[in-house]
Amino acid sequence: MAKVLSVKNIPTELKYEPGFELKFGITDETTGIETATLARTHFPAGSKSKRHYHTEGDLIWYCISGTAVWYIGEEQEEMVTEPGDFMFIPRNEIHCTAVPSQTEPVEGVGGYGGCSNPYKSGKVFVD
Question: Per the domain annotation, does 3 fall within a domain?
Answer without folding.
Answer: no
